[in-house]
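Subject: design request, 409 residues
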């Protein structure tokens, strides 16, 4: 099971605890718990000081998804959707089996765990399409933990990351009901290593993800010692400014990506401002890179929601203008096509006019095939009013600023 077996001396009480743990059902335990274990190692005063000095931050699974989905899943989803022949899909499967993912500040491995789960799910969908086009052949999963790489300066975190990824393999096998064996365990000693990312050669990866340490440029010397600061400044001698510590990760990520590679990194707002921006985001663009989403998918979606609530379609389109990924392009196309039918929901809400929300938009498009429209409040006393507003909506009468329209009974 393990490459090296290290004897561990345990007392009788510890053996009983180990026996009880081995007999428990661990299938419901999320490996992200190892992040909590890692975080627990920094609860002492000395630990908190070290965490603060190195800019260590812990990322929730939801926030990790917001990096992994646009960086990895959407990329592969679009490519698979665009493939229509058996040959094209087979080529994609081979490419997927060689696809390398790196987290250069991996901590306990949660980014790698989420990325592994999602990449296996992408492959599962690809295998189903292959099987439909070629039912005479049995296609096997080729994605393995050996395609995932990480590094961290904390040796305890590195060992946790290896365990997290190995558990991730077992979870994926069970969740997707794959005909794979979870044993023997993968040897990840060469994949996930204890090293300082700023002074170590990175694996040439197709995707680089993670949450690099945050530390203001003015604090690097104070928190990490003069000697370390001098090493950083010597290596990045062309950067003649105090910049956020994470800026160096952005720069290295761009330099270590394979051709057509993608990177998704968490950062504070400082990365988009002043000197930090000049040596990171601007550097990427000036060196044949392309930034397809910066500064917050979450904030953009919140702004879009507010704009649409106010009926401001143009401002919503502007938020997504220039984004290249498929979902954004489709959304902008939808808004342009239906802009005359998108009312000012907030204004109508103030007038207590019920027209529904959310799913009602898609339901209206299928009104000819539906008897009941989801989202509407079909109370006996307001049926006439609701139908009036439905008719007005469908005929484009709701685009007037004050909605002064008259609909016959």
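Subject: RE: design request

Done. Sequence follows.
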């Amino acid at each position: 099971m393990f490459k090296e077996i290290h004897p561990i001396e345990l007392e009788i009480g510890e053996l009983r605890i180990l026996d009880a743990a081995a007999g428990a059902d661990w299938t419901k335990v999320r490996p992200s718990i190892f992040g909590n274990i890692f975080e627990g190692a920094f609860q002492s005063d000395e630990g908190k000081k070290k965490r603060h000095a190195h800019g260590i931050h812990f990322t929730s699974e939801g926030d990790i998804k917001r990096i992994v989905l646009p960086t990895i899943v959407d990329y592969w989803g679009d490519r698979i959707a665009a493939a229509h022949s058996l040959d094209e899909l087979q080529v994609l499967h081979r490419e997927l089996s060689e696809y390398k993912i790196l987290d250069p500040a991996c901590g306990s491995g949660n980014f790698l765990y989420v990325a592994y789960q999602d990449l296996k799910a992408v492959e599962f969908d690809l295998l189903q399409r292959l099987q439909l086009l070629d039912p005479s052949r049995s296609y096997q999963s080729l994605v393995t933990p050996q395609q995932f790489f990480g590094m961290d300066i904390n040796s305890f975190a590195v060992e946790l990351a290896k365990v997290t990824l190995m558990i991730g393999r077992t979870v994926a096998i069970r969740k997707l009901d794959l005909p794979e064996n979870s044993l023997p365990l993968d040897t990840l000693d060469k994949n996930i290593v204890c090293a300082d990312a700023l002074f170590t050669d990175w694996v040439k990866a197709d995707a680089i993800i993670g949450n690099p340490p945050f530390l203001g440029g003015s604090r690097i010397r104070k928190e990490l010692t003069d000697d370390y600061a001098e090493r950083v400044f010597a290596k990045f001698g062309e950067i003649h400014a105090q910049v956020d510590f994470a800026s160096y990760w952005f720069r290295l990520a761009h330099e270590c990506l394979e051709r057509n590679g993608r990177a998704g990194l968490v950062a504070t707002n400082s990365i988009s401002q002043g000197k930090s921006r000049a040596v990171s985001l601007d550097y990427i663009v000036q060196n044949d890179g392309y930034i397809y989403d910066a500064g917050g998918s979450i904030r953009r979606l919140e702004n879009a929601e507010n704009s649409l609530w106010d009926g401001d379609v143009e401002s919503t389109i502007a938020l997504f203008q220039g984004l290249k990924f498929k979902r954004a392009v489709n959304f902008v196309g939808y808004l342009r096509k239906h802009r005359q039918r998108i009312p000012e929901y907030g204004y109508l809400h103030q007038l207590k006019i019920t027209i529904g929300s959310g799913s009602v938009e898609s339901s209206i498009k299928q009104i000819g095939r539906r008897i009941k429209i989801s989202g509407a409040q079909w109370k006996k006393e307001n049926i006439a009013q609701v139908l009036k507003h439905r008719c007005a909506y469908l005929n484009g009468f709701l685009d007037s600023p004050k909605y002064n329209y008259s609909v016959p009974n």
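Residues 51-55, 357-378, 399-409 have pLDDT under 50 and may be disordered.
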